[in-house]
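Message: A physicist's question: would you kindly supply an amino acid chain plus fold tokens?
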Amino acid sequence: MSYEYKTGENDTFPYLVMESSEYSPNQCFFRNDEYGVWLYHANCIEMMDILIRKYPEGRFDIIFADPPYFLSNGGITCHAGKMVKVDKGQWDKSNGPELNHEFNTAWLSRCQKLLKPNGTIWVSGTHHVIYSLGYAMQQLGMKILNDITWEKPNPPPNLSCRYFTHSTETIIWAAKNEMSKHCFNYDAMREMNSGKQMKTVWTMPSPNGNEKDFGKHPTQKPAFFEMDLI
């Protein structure tokens, strides 16, 4: 795959122009140079390989990853009071535990290379994928700092009545490696939590209509959730 960098006089990050591949259109769909925001619709492996060649010593202080949970396997859920199939797309279908773990290790290893020496990564998941993610981090030598439980007070009911209602997601917070001196804004977090240390269970509802100005996204996270992470 060919690509080129386009940078201006004041650019701190290159605007990538990539050719489409069999996996993805590899296009920049949104760009705001004033705030330094670039959104790409691209294959993550191809995209990160390009960035690693450009920044072999790492580039990012923080990465947030919301990978496939591998949920779209013929199951059902409740949406707007109706029973619907869980089918987010081909990208969310499981290829079996071995191939799923191979994929998780592949993209996590690239994220690790792109982190600065003291950088950290946040990765979300449910029980379908989170154990593979945590094990891959351990295999890669990352340092797991915390696991955050996002508790949803408004989860959809379990229609089969054979399981507990799924009402949480897990977010693993990890440093690049055991030598990393990660940043933790303790005073700011305590101030946000009424003067108390913030615990690892965060309760907040799923995104509402006010956060969906640009349309519905199947794996959208609350804005306040992302703000707390940063």
Notes: Residues 97-114 form the longest helix (18 residues). The CA atoms of residues 221 and 227 lie 11 Å apart. The chain has a mean pLDDT of 87.
